[in-house]
Amino acid sequence: MKLSDYVIDFLVKQKVDHIFEICGGAITHLLDSVYDRKDIKLIPMHHEQTAAFAAEGYARINGNIGVAMATSGPGATNLITGIGSCYFDSIPCLFITGQVNTYEFKFKKPIRQLGFQETDIVSMVKPIVKDSVLIEDAREIRYQLERLVYIAKSGRQGPVLLDIPMNVQRAEINPRTLKAFKKDTIAKSPSKIKDNVLTKVADLIHNSSRPLVLVGGGLRLSQASEELYDFINKTNIPVVSTLIGKDAFSNNNEQFVGMMGTYGLRYANLSVANADLVIILGARLDTRQTGTKPDTFSRGAKIVHVDVDVNELNSKVLVDIAIHADIKVFLQRINKIIKKYNTKKAAPWRKVIQQYKKKYAQNNSSKGEIDPNLFLEDMSKYMPKNSMVCVDVGQHQMWAAQSLQIKKQQRFLTQGGMGAMGSALAFAIGACFAKPGVTAVVVTGDGGFQLNLQELQTVYYYQLPIKIIMLNNSCYGMVRQFQEQYFKSRFQSTVIGYNAPDFQKVSSSFKIKSCKLDSQKQIVPKLKSLFKDNKPVFLEVIINSGTKVLPKLSVNRPIEDQEPLLSRKELQDNMQIEMVKEYKSEF
């Protein structure tokens, strides 16, 4: 059979039913192998970057690998941002690139290029993939496909890339003679958790007065949500989340405190700072979570850190118990030995957290203008119960993470490590193909939306149930806020030189229903109308260009000391442990 046919058959066996791509000469054999098939479909996007993002959104929703294809040269290089996003946020995706014929590839010749659009994509992506391979021998195709998919989905998950030259794609092969991959040739998964380690964790829980669970993106990746609910039901421990872990635990559960971190809720950060035990599940503790002085993070607490990647343990914050394990396995094991937590003992700590939440709730100070936090909180009431919320990068990302109330059956997809603007719409497209008929909600900004608004055509063509909410503040708001704080309001390129089109006309030109919201009194009617059916809609929400994301943690301050700064007395009154000495703020 033709090798390109074998590749598509393999993907079908992996239960991949959609491939996101942009056509190109170097993948024409692969494209042709999908023609007229009923068990797998190609989804033509309008930029390779969005094809990569869509594959990531697909993988995040269905828990399987996502697949994106691109031609050689610019097609392959345009995938790189999406590949990096998958790598930093641990999303298993297979990227397949076409390559010039092997007899046109320069290999070690000291020339820049031999074949047209020849580009060594395998070497380029090495730092941001778990592995990348150029197939030179058609007989290696089974081995490499099986090996790469296994690598992508094992341990700490991530992207892989397979580069297939055109003459290899069209080669004739005998599947029965192809070499298979043996899993035992790859490094083993984390070792079994020792019983005495679990006992130590259980003892810490039973002896703590102010325990807290911090959940990150790894919780969802390990598909351990139900095990987390069991654990919290038994222990009554309050839960805070990272940005990527926001949908790991229902936000309307009484035990959920909120998102913590640089732009986290003040009451969530105060809870983390004052805990005497923090159990970290699948969060890598970067400076967006700990602040730039990690030695001050939860300094009065015993810290238990569970992660599938041993390199993340004790790398930024020294912990008391580091457990190299899959989170699902850890929770299954600890749930068997943990006893019901003493609710009377837990009551004082829960009361403290409730006081934090009451005192520092997000308040509307916009004097009649639309407040993004309150708008997004209101939107939570009207979103379908199984919505897939896809959030772009910028101020709106933080407002959404602070204020959207994500329920148990809903998902919250956004970028963490790469932080690429223009990703949310493509995420939503991938998510819609992973769960047909389920509503996707895009939250984006006017700046980021312009990076990939061409995918409105994909939304229209497939009539995807995507509700696009664009918060328009007529600037690059996050960097503008940064310039106001550190550059004396010299708004170069964020306001000065920035411009945007008439988004109502843009949306209408793609034949997508469009509407605008510019006053508070319109919010409820617009939201009700927005979600009344499953058709694509674009809603532009006008907000003041000076609206900030608050609270915000500045450089060199502990996470409990966010701006706007509290008086030293008020901060001291909130602390169950000693305050940190003042640090000089610098940039």
How is the secondary structure organized here?
Layout: H1 3-13, E1 18-21, H2 28-34, E2 41-44, H3 48-62, E3 66-70, H4 74-77, H5 80-88, E4 93-99, H6 121-124, E5 131-134, H7 141-153, E6 160-165, H8 166-169, H9 195-207, E7 211-215, H10 217-221, H11 225-235, E8 239-241, E9 256-259, H12 266-274, E10 277-281, H13 287-290, E11 302-307, E12 321-324, H14 327-337, H15 343-359, H16 372-380, E13 388-391, H17 395-403, E14 411-414, H18 424-434, E15 440-445, H19 446-449, H20 456-462, E16 466-472, H21 477-486, H22 503-509, E17 513-517, H23 523-530, E18 537-542, H24 568-574
Parallel strand pairs: 1-2, 1-3, 3-4, 4-6, 5-6, 7-8, 7-10, 8-9, 10-11, 11-12, 13-14, 13-15, 15-16, 16-18, 17-18
Helix pairs in contact: 1-2, 3-5, 3-18, 9-14, 11-14, 12-15, 16-17
Structural summary, described in words:
The chain is of the alpha/beta class and 587 residues long. The chain folds into 3 domains: 3-185, 3-Layer(aba) Sandwich (Rossmann fold); 195-359, 3-Layer(aba) Sandwich (Rossmann fold), CATH 3.40.50.1220; 372-542, Rossmann fold (3-Layer(aba) Sandwich), CATH 3.40.50.970. Helix content is 36%, strand content 15%. It has 24 helices and 18 strands. The strands form 3 sheets. A 6-stranded parallel β-sheet has the order 2-1-3-4-6-5, sandwiched between helices. It has a 6-stranded parallel β-sheet with strand order 9-8-7-10-11-12, sandwiched between helices. The chain has a 6-stranded parallel β-sheet with strand order 14-13-15-16-18-17, with helices on both faces. α7 (141-153) links the parallel β5 and β6 (160-165). α1 (3-13) crosses α2 and α3 (48-62) packs across α18 (424-434). The protein is globular and about 75 Å long. It starts with a helix and ends in a 13-residue tail after the last helix. The model has no long low-confidence stretch (mean pLDDT 95).
